[in-house]
Write a structure and sequence with these properties.
36% of the residues lie in helices and 13% in strands. The protein is an alpha/beta fold and 361 residues long. It folds into 3 domains: 103 residues, Zinc finger, CHC2-typedomain (DNA Primase, Chain A, Alpha-Beta Complex); 110 residues, DNA primase DNAg catalytic core, N-terminal domain (Alpha-Beta Complex), CATH 3.90.980; 99 residues, Dna Topoisomerase Vi A Subunit, Chain: A, domain 2. The strands form 3 sheets. The chain has a 4-stranded antiparallel beta sheet, with helices on one face. A 4-stranded antiparallel beta sheet has the order 5-6-7-8, with helices on one face. α12 links the parallel β9 and β10. The longest helix is centred in the last third of the chain and has 16 residues. The chain is globular, with a radius of gyration of 21 Å. The termini are far apart. The relative contact order is 0.11.
């Protein structure tokens, strides 16, 4: 049975929404348009990289990596929250009863939303039924692309002295054991690493993996500390971190973004607690202290279907303790609540910016 969100995603044709949002289609094409994020492209997306799949009613930009449903498209183009996108699309779809939950939750606090949905489910008035065997919410990588990431990890090996000092220092506080467990590595010599990868793989393979940009350069130039996302023994994603104070602090592959440390969800028993953090280092810090945690790379990268991976678990949101983090917590909570899952929120002291700082202090 479809959930409210599933029905909403099917109710509006994604190409119709794209035109309504003012996206420019390529010539006479019905399924290809210029990306709404031209600043994320080297040449402003002159080649129209945004593609629409009419069968799945989803979009994907093959240059900047943006992808998702009509909800994601509306949210990204309009720059609104998930809940606002749901409400606006429900109005566009005609305000049907099937989408009334998002309106009912509007303006409610996290606790009020949880209590409201719990009452409805007890009364049998929602169809938010958990799935017993959730699917991975992103397309599995090919062995060839996973091999590219593994080759980089194997070539670079362990951390250099500067990177190790940064991760074990006063601001990060990670132990050598946790660093080794998560296989964090560093690009010690950019030129040598670039040469090795170009000799081992074709430029097309490297670009398909999202590891090289349109100019043929390895994207991790200043972001030398690399955090691999590992699932079933394969490296499925990479994120880089600078060790100085320059922006942007992080850089990751231009492809579908998975959860960090999602592997632990397969090993948790029903009712066990798991924390969802806003960054990989916060998740590592929680794991270092004996608890279980995953991480998202920004709430925009958490797709509604990912909530199914947490079925039956005691979920606690632990995002950054600032205005943006609090808004993201509400948005992420509503994604769970609209899927029929209750969540909790870790409350940090006002002067503490995140869980890492809380533990270090």
């Amino acid at each position: 049975m479809k959930t409210d969100l599933d029905q909403l995603k099917d109710a509006i044709k994604i190409t119709d929404l794209a035109r309504e949002l003012g996206l420019k289609f390529k010539g006479d094409s019905r399924t290809q348009a210029h990306c709404f994020n031209p600043q994320g492209h080297t040449h402003g997306d002159r080649n129209a990289s945004l593609s629409f799949d009419l069968k799945t009613n989803r979009y994907k930009c093959f240059a900047c990596g943006a992808s998702g449903s009509v909800i994601d498209l509306y949210k990204e183009v309009k720059g609104v929250s998930v809940s606002e996108a749901i409400n606006e699309l429900a109005k566009m779809a005609g305000g049907a009863k099937a989408f009334s939950l998002s309106d009912k939750l509007k303006g409610k606090t996290l606790t009020q939303s949880a209590e409201y949905l719990t009452r409805l489910m007890r009364q049998g008035k929602t169809d938010q039924t958990p799935h017993s065997t959730p699917e991975t919410p992103y397309k599995p990588l090919t062995d060839a692309i996973a091999g590219v990431y593994k080759a980089l990890l194997d070539y670079c090996g362990e951390l250099d002295t500067q990177s190790l000092a940064y991760l074990t220092g006063a601001t990060r506080g990670l132990t050598k054991e946790i660093i080794k467990r998560f296989q964090i590595f560093s690009i010690k010599d950019y030129t040598a690493t670039n040469k090795f990868m170009r000799e081992k793989f074709s430029l097309e393979q490297l670009q398909q993996a999202g590891l090289y940009n349109e100019k043929g350069n390895l994207i991790f130039y200043q972001h030398k500390v690399i955090i691999p996302f590992i699932e079933s023994g394969r490296v499925i994603f990479l994120q880089g971190r600078r060790t100085d104070d320059q922006q942007p602090k992080y850089m990751h592959l231009k492809r579908s973004v998975p959860l960090f440390n999602a592997e632990i969800l397969k090993r948790l028993a029903t009712g066990e607690r798991v924390y969802i953090c806003e960054g990989v280092f916060d998740a590592m810090m929680i794991e270092q202290n004996g608890y279980r945690a995953t991480a998202i790379l920004g709430v925009n990268n958490f797709k509604p279907q990912m909530a199914e991976l947490f079925n039956g678990l005691d979920v606690v949101l632990c995002l950054d303790n600032d205005e943006q983090g609090n808004r993201a917590t509400q948005d992420l909570a509503r994604v769970f609540l609209l899927q029929g899952q209750s969540v909790k929120h870790k409350i940090l002291p006002d002067e503490t910016k995140d869980i890492t700082e809380w533990y270090i202090k």
